[in-house]
Specification:
nine-stranded mixed β-sheet, 3 domains, Udp-n-acetylmuramoylalanyl-d-glutamate--2,6- Diaminopimelate Ligase, Chain: A, domain 1
């Protein structure tokens, strides 16, 4: 890592008894993975406090500790270690003068767009020259840790940026300067915390605080908050280059001719004098927009549409990404357990309806972070379940009754509904009802861990 102890002292304006010119090995917040020569940041989290592990950090070879209270002469004391971590990351990023930084936010599709953009740019710059967030390291801790992975080979940095409150993205982006800002869409995720969709749009627009003067802004032209985001970009950034994707005729990257079945989607992308038809196995119309967002961001890094076509048509989502489909024992399994909010639920049910899946055995868990809107949105989604060809509707979680209320009110068949309090009971019940030709659809927020229902797929294959 191209960072010395002397630089760290200078950043935090501290004097500590250590070898000042020594290169550090890396930055760590977890003593379980800490390596000799690392600098340890004692982060206080929801469940653990890093200050309780400072002794362990030094015993494992940490050469310095950044903490909110003094431990020994090799401790740099700061007011807030999370802010200090971000400050150090900002300094470290600024050491790489020629790197191009992309930042992606939005209510839905952030991770998918990030992964697609990574693959597209990899064809031009090679994977070893590109760094992206591992997993969903998209907050005030994960983004700095990603940045600390930079080395002199890297030409591209792709950051996914998430939030749970107003001001969170601003806090991060005020310290991290970027060349391209992408906002996928404005939806209902976190509405329980932010109280209104307008506040969600406002929170997402905070990404512009990191955009360099004249930087590129990629927006969804079809989004109802496009004009608001456009205004925010112009107010926050000096002379931003604002470009858009969508189905509207005035979108810079025009999406058209979307046709889908239960195996793939075909659609057209057009920008200026370039046009290309793309066939992807990514499920759901929402992924067409994720592809478009990544395409437009990459286009202004010199990637032509034909190059995008080759990448996207061979692109596969990794495990735990949305809308994973497989066939087991004559049964189609559609697992969407990465996350759940009203928008993503509507998209998933629309996909099932458009592609005429039949004999659907649906398993639905709670949607979280909806606050006072939880009952309403669970009722609404329950009503939408009545629009698809259900064989069974299996519910679990504290909001199951609201799903059923909406389902029954919309004319759903009461006889096909089952409510369970444990995933093991759902697995046992599925053994009794699933048959060849059925479609098993599973969706819920990550906290539900509904994918555990499928841990043992033998319960399907053994019966056939």
């Amino acid at each position: 890592m191209n960072l010395t102890l002397k630089e760290i002292y200078k950043i935090f304006n501290k004097r500590v008894n250590c070898e000042k010119d020594r290169l550090i090995n890396g930055i760590s917040i977890d003593t379980r993975t800490l390596k000799k020569g690392d600098v340890f940041f004692a982060i206080k989290g929801e469940n653990t406090d890093g200050h309780n592990f400072i002794k362990d950090a030094f015993e494992k070879g940490a050469i310095l500790c950044v903490a909110q209270k003094n431990y020994n002469e090799k401790t740099v004391v700061v007011k807030d270690t999370k802010t200090a971590l971000l400050k150090l990351a900002s300094y470290y990023l600024n050491k790489f003068k020629n790197i191009r930084v992309f930042a992606i936010t939005g209510s839905n599709g952030k991770t998918t767009t990030k992964e697609i953009l990574y693959k597209i740019l990899s064809k031009k710059f090679k994977e070893e020259y590109i760094l992206k967030n591992p997993k969903s390291f998209n907050n005030i801790i994960g983004i700095p840790l990603t940045i600390f992975g930079l080395n002199n080979k890297h030409k591209i940095l792709i950051l996914e940026v998430g939030m749970n409150r107003l001001g969170e993205i601003k806090q991060i982006m005020s310290m991290i300067k970027i060349d391209v800002a992408v906002i996928t869409n404005i939806g209902l995720a976190h509405i329980g915390l932010l109280k209104s969709k307008k506040n969600i749009a406002r929170a997402k627009s905070e990404i512009f605080y990191g955009l360099k003067n004249g930087g590129v802004t990629v927006l969804n032209r079809d989004d109802e908050y496009y004009n608001f985001l456009l205004k925010q970009a112009k107010e926050i950034v000096t002379k931003p280059k604002i470009i858009s994707f969508g189905m509207r005729d005035d979108a810079d990257l025009k999406i058209s001719d979307i046709n889908s079945n239960n195996k793939y989607i075909i659609f057209n992308l057009k920008i200026k004098n370039q046009s290309v038809n793309i066939k992807t196995r990514l499920l759901g119309r929402h992924n067409v927009f994720n592809i478009a967002a990544a395409t437009l961001a990459s286009y202004y890094s010199g990637v032509k549409l034909q190059g995008v076509k080759k990448v996207v048509e061979n692109f596969k989502l990794k495990n735990m990404m949305r809308m994973e489909k497989k066939y087991v024992g004559g049964i189609t399994i559609i697992k969407d357990c990465y996350n759940a909010n009203p928008d993503s639920f509507k998209t998933a049910l629309q996909f099932l309806k458009e592609n005429k899946f039949k004999n659907i055995v649906a398993v639905a868990g709670d949607m979280y972070e909806l606050g006072k809107f939880a009952k309403k949105f669970h009722n609404d989604i329950g009503g939408l379940f009545s629009s698809i060809e259900l064989k069974r509707l299996i519910l679990t979680g504290k909001y199951s009754d609201y799903y059923t209320n909406g389902f029954f009110k919309a004319g759903g068949n009461k006889k096909i509904v089952k409510i369970f309090d444990k995933k093991q009971k759902i697995s046992r019940y599925l053994q009794t009802v699933l048959e060849k030709g059925d479609t098993l659809f599973i969706k819920g927020s990550r906290k539900n861990k509904l994918e555990e229902i499928l841990d043992d797929l033998k319960f399907i294959s053994k019966r056939r």
